DNA sequence: AGACATGACTAAATCGTTTTCCATAGCCAC
DNA sequence: GTGGCTATGGAAAACGATTTAGTCATGTCT
């Protein structure tokens, strides 16, 4: 590595002091125009680039935003939903001069705790895409006074980017109901804030429309767990009173359900209907197109980025929770048939 | 933000000098056991965490690896192939105490050039997942003496993690040939090192087996371009002498081809066969399963991480190119039918 | 006893910036 | 001529750690 050019080098060449060079390059006022020009010219000639570590050491502003994407929950960059939000978040903050850095969630023995990592790197802020909120380590992190934005998890005093799970799910139910379905089974995700909101919407909708929800229409399936989705689909098919529509936790499991149904000799949607959730890339590819909720991940990432940066740059404003609700869009797809309720 | 605890604070409490504290915490030898214990105890009590910026300013070792994933080429975190390699790379380097940081490839006007960003952040090394190698900015980057690992692009003096495109493609061709296909069309990707190797393998195979390659069996289609894949599929179908098998640049376009063929009333593989490339998640989902090359992205990420770190930590070794070739695996799938060549 | 090694600790320089405070000169007004 | 002002520039401290070159006892060897 070549020796980097420093302010001192420029100072020597220009025959001025280091502080003068610093001022000239930072466009301060107490420098004559001529000197400023000359110094900037020399700096350019030498390909001078400031040293990030040094400037940040003094100023305390790192312009680095930590990102927590917990491997512990089996979630990583390959989780499309979070990858989309992250991608949009990254673009947003980079546009504003920030940079993201992942928190190390590995299992290596001398790994620092999340809180320690934040201190060590002196992050300006933190995005929690996905984490196991039960962990002490994560709870401790939430206690800190670092500006934090979280996706679909709310904690007083932090920013929450909430997808409108209740409303979105209600609209999905409405579409299914409008197409004549009355016996609707729900293979839902595991217990967390997101799952609860969707489940509440399902239950409320069913209740308000006086539809039965027999116990055997409800199943818990971890998100993106293909094998479990397949097994549960078979369990549903074995029921004496089969539902006309099955809801899945996400698009991936819905497609797996689709495959299981087809293997069992059923046609979708002619014989049975299904719906997913999220609006992942796979729905543009698989036929029939899955009816789903297309989550506005782009907006989620943008909002998270902008709110977080506001909080970083103006800490005095909005000391409490800021919740941004992002609506998804119903993708009508083709996997929910129009049927006549009387025939059921 | 609370005031961070520094060495000075600990020194004051323990009534020793800052240097003594530093040595105690770094487990240096010239410290009495008693003092070392005491200092470490106090540090723990105060939740002391060293300041990254300060320690790195002196040592010049940042343990940060820059990652270039060019948005310019339309490639970002949502590109599954690169996301997989990155994910595996990230795990590998984090395990060894490194951290990744993306180079800013945004269009914001005051963005630094790649080289400047590397200087500014004083990266220890660089991973180029995907970049437009035509750009001056990228060429300049390759001139630097920063340790660099590149995926599927070779430059003397840097590390190249090369997928075995020629060999893999040859084996895919062999499978197709063995199943009786003789008229094989190739919708290939755009011109780059990867495409060329695969294309060379295709041409060589066809030549060696004395198979005809009429011009109208060859098409250029950008990777992952669904619309173009669909249009080209229709073009192939319109040919007077239709091929029995169509190769696509990647799995995504292959699935799009599949859909187009089915819309045209053809069954895959009974009426026509297809094959993709890469082994993306979609092949586990779509039926029939696409015959493809499953690239070992996990291995690519691991090798890239380990080689790059070796180069960083032992710069004296291996000053030249290190090429690591990673073989893919033929996924037989179900989209290439067994046919009798005589009938064609 | 003198020379020398060892152990335990500290002062101070250093990394590359930023920033505060001061110095000097020139100028004007009274 | 003195006080005060502005414009321009520099000296030096600071950020928080690491590291080099010591200091000063104490112990050991010959």
Structure characterization notes:
- Two copies of one chain form a homodimer.
- With 344 residues, chain A is α/β, with parallel strands linked by helices.
- Helix content of chain A is 41%, strand content 15%.
- The first copy, chain A, contains twelve helices and twelve strands.
- In chain A, strands 2-1-3-4-5-11 form a six-stranded parallel sheet, with helices on one face.
- In chain A, helix 2 packs across helix 3.
- The radius of gyration of chain A is 27 Å and the shape is elongated.
- The interface between A and B is large, with 55 and 56 residues.
- Chain A binds a DNA duplex (30 and 30 nucleotides) through helix 2 and helix 4.
DSSP helix fraction of chain A: 40-55%
Series of secondary-structure elements of chain A, N-terminal to C-terminal: HHHHEHEHEHEEHEHEHEHEEHEE
Q: Outline the biggest β-sheet of chain A.
A: 6 strands, parallel
Shape estimate of chain A: elongated
Quaternary structure classification: homodimer
Count of DSSP H/I helices of chain A = 12
Beta-strand segment tally of chain A = 12
Low-confidence stretches of chain A: none
Integer-rounded radius of gyration of chain A: 27 Å
| SS content category of chain A | alpha/beta
The spatial strand order of the largest sheet of chain A comes to 2-1-3-4-5-11
Q: What is the averaged pLDDT score of chain A?
A: 93
User: Percent of residues of chain A in beta strands?
Assistant: 5-15%
- End-to-end C-alpha gap of chain A: 75 Å
Largest interface: A-B, 55 and 56 residues
């Amino acid at each position: 590595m070549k020796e980097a050019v420093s302010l001192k080098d420029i100072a020597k060449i220009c025959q001025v002091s280091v502080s003068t060079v610093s001022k000239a390059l930072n466009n301060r006022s107490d420098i004559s125009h001529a000197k400023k020009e000359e110094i900037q010219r020399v700096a350019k000639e030498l390909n001078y680039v400031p040293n990030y570590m040094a400037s940040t050491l003094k100023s305390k502003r790192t312009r680095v935003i930590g990102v927590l994407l917990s491997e512990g929950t089996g979630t990583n960059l390959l989780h499309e939903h979070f990858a989309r939000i992250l991608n949009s978040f990254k673009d947003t903050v980079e546009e504003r001069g920030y940079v993201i850095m992942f928190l190390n969630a590995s299992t290596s023995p001398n790994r620092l705790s999340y809180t320690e990592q934040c201190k060590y790197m002196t992050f300006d802020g933190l995005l929690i895409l996905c984490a196991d909120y039960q962990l002490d380590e994560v709870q401790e992190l939430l206690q800190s006074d670092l500006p934090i934005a979280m996706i679909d998890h709310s904690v007083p005093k932090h920013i929450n980017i909430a997808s409108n799970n209740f409303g979105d799910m209600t609209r999905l139910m409405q579409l299914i109901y409008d197409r004549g379905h009355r016996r609707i089974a729900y293979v839902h995700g595991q217990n967390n804030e997101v799952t609860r909101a969707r489940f509440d919407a399902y239950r409320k909708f069913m209740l308000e429309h006086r539809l039965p929800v027999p116990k055997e229409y409800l199943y818990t399936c971890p998100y993106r767990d293909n094998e479990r989705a397949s097994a549960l689909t078979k369990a549903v098919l074995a029921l004496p009173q089969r539902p006309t529509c099955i809801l899945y936790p996400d698009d991936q499991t819905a497609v797996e359900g689709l495959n299981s149904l087809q293997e069992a000799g059923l046609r979708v949607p002619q014989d049975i209907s299904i719906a997913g959730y999220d609006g992942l890339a796979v729905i543009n590819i698989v036929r029939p197109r899955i009816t789903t909720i297309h989550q506005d991940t782009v907006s989620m990432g943008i909002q998270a980025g902008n709110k977080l940066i506001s909080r970083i740059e103006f800490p005095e404003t909005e000391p409490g929770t800021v919740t941004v609700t992002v609506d998804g869009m119903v993708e009508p797809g083709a996997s929910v048939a129009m049927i006549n309720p009387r025939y059921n």
